[in-house]
Amino acid sequence: MNNINFTSRNNPIPKFEIKTNKGVLKVEEISTKNKNIDKETIEATDFFVYNFATNTKDPSFLKYLDMPKSEYKKSIKRFSNYMKSMFNNDDGNLTYLIAKDSKGKVQARCITKSLDDFGGISDKNTLCIDSVAVNKEYRGNNVGSIMVNKIIEQSKDQFKDIFLVADNCAVPAYKKGWELKEFKPENEKQEKVFNIIKEERPDYPEYVTFMHKSINTESSRWWERFTKLLEKK
């Protein structure tokens, strides 16, 4: 298969549909090689920031709801640089899905990648759920869960664990829909990794929760691999 039109070069996902109480959503991957990727990056950033702001108690996101339009646009453009950097540093495991309604309007977006957010370490066997957002009118239809589960299904030979920094308001949904558990250190290795993550997330624990899940129980766990990578650094 020629994967040039897919975001995730290692784990391409064919188009699929999600049935909701508002109609069918058509889901597809967006390629970071698309000629309109700069425009897409701005639109995606706007989408994520707005949806995060409508489902959080974090003031760093809530401020966007009342921000003057001109200032909001500048902030979104600055914010989009993170996404551009993520696309540029893709190791082949990044997946970017969008879900459109019958009129072609995007109602949900999901970005996953290899875990590489902490300590300059990249673990290609841990699926990091970077961003998932669903427009308010489509929430409650398991849209985000279905999108993430499709990614897990297509990449089960690649990833052994899932990791997510979850907004506290969304934790119940992640526990129910994805069966994720809160990451709390239970041994020395976990404590070491936990402290590194905590140092880079000043919004923990007031606004976010660290969550994880094992996909392959026969493999070593993500914090064990992470510890070994840190020792080599």
Describe the SSE topology:
Elements: E1 16-20, E2 23-29, H1 37-53, H2 59-62, H3 69-88, E3 95-100, E4 106-115, E5 123-134, H4 143-154, E6 161-167, H5 171-177, E7 181-182, H6 188-199, E8 208-214, H7 222-232
Parallel strand pairs: 5-6
Antiparallel strand pairs: 1-2, 2-3, 3-4, 4-5, 6-8, 7-8
The level of helicity is 25-40%
Number of helices: 7
CATH superfamily, by name, is Gcn5-related N-acetyltransferase (GNAT)
CATH class bucket: Alpha Beta
What does this structure look like?
- This protein has 233 residues and is an alpha+beta fold.
- The chain has helices at 37-53, 59-62, 69-88, 143-154, 171-177, 188-199, 222-232, and strands at residues 16-20, 23-29, 95-100, 106-115, 123-134, 161-167, 181-182, 208-214.
- The chain has a single domain (16-232), classed as Gcn5-related N-acetyltransferase (GNAT) (Aminopeptidase, 3-Layer(aba) Sandwich).
- It contains 7 helices and 8 strands; from the N terminus they run E-E-H-H-H-E-E-E-H-E-H-E-H-E-H.
- Strands 1-2-3-4-5-6-8-7 form an 8-stranded mixed β-sheet, sandwiched between helices.
- Helix 1 packs across helix 3 (69-88) and helix 6 packs across helix 7.
- It is globular and about 50 Å long.
- The chain starts with 15 loop residues before the first strand and ends with a helix.
- The relative contact order is 0.14.
- Residues 1-5 have low confidence and may be disordered.
